[in-house]
Design brief:
Layout: H1 2-25, H2 30-46, H3 48-57, H4 63-86, H5 90-97, H6 99-122, H7 141-167, H8 173-195, H9 203-230
Length: about 250
């Protein structure tokens, strides 16, 4: 199941990215294109075979795992700001872009970096636990994983109230569908933090939660984009997530 989820998520991200290329070339919503580009890069690194090839090129000591966490943080930051702005959720936008958000991002980066080097120094040179052939300290692996879930969980938790309000609102159906998909992604992202600390026998559930979060966000962004395509009038330049006046 893990392999299927890895490749399915990558294919969805690639398709969404390609759909956004024409608009990006025209200068429309390049932030969304950047989000999807980062999401696709994360999906590439999350595929075991591609991960092994890239990490091998970088020396084979699992630096790719740390890079992946940083890319996820960057993608989540952009998603949070874009969705909060589109929903006119001023409080959520302030929490993400303000002092609380900066602290959450900084502490998240610090936590994954410290955990990474503790794991790398705990075993013989080679792969970290959680990857084939890993030789690092397996006791620290869940904490490294959990550290990588902290910032996404923070942003997702901030987005839940405005997304829930959008789902219950009188916005167009495609917008509400997009909000619902992103809401599901946010809920799974929040759940991924405690799930990271569950026993290894729950690995299947952990993978499902992680990829469900990613797919929820990506499919939600696609739905928002589609709502913009069918919106009228065609020349409307307002954010597609905002409710029309009047």
């Amino acid at each position: 199941m893990r392999t299927t989820l890895e490749w399915a998520t990558l294919l969805v991200c690639c398709a969404a990215l390609l759909l956004r290329v024409p608009d990006a070339v025209r200068g429309r919503n390049r932030t969304v294109f950047g989000i999807l580009l980062l999401g696709t890069m994360c999906s590439v690194l999350a595929v075991t075979e591609l991960y092994d090839a890239i990490d091998g090129a970088l020396g084979g000591w699992d630096l790719t795992s740390l890079i992946l966490r940083y890319l996820v943080f960057a993608a989540v930051l952009l998603v949070g700001l874009r969705v909060a702005r589109g929903l006119s959720a001023a409080r959520a936008h302030l929490l993400i872009s303000g002092r609380a958000g900066r602290w959450a991002l900084g502490l998240g980066c610090l936590a994954v970096t410290v955990a990474f080097f503790l794991m790398a120094g705990a075993g013989s040179p080679g792969r970290l636990p959680g990857q084939a052939g890993g030789e690092g300290d397996a006791d620290l692996a869940p904490y490294f994983t959990a550290a990588g879930r902290t910032y996404p969980a923070f942003v997702s938790l901030v987005l839940v109230p405005p997304l829930l309000a959008a789902v219950r609102s009188g916005l167009p159906r495609t917008v509400r569908a997009g909000a619902l998909l992103v809401l599901l992604g946010a809920v799974f992202a929040v759940l991924s933090l405690p799930a990271a600390l569950t026993p290894s026998s729950w690995a299947g559930a952990q993978h499902f939660i992680n990829y469900a979060a990613a797919l929820g966000y990506v499919l939600g962004l696609i739905a928002f984009w589609f709502s913009g395509l069918i919106a009228s009038p065609p020349s409307n330049t307002q954010a597609t997530l905002r409710q029309k006046r009047g």
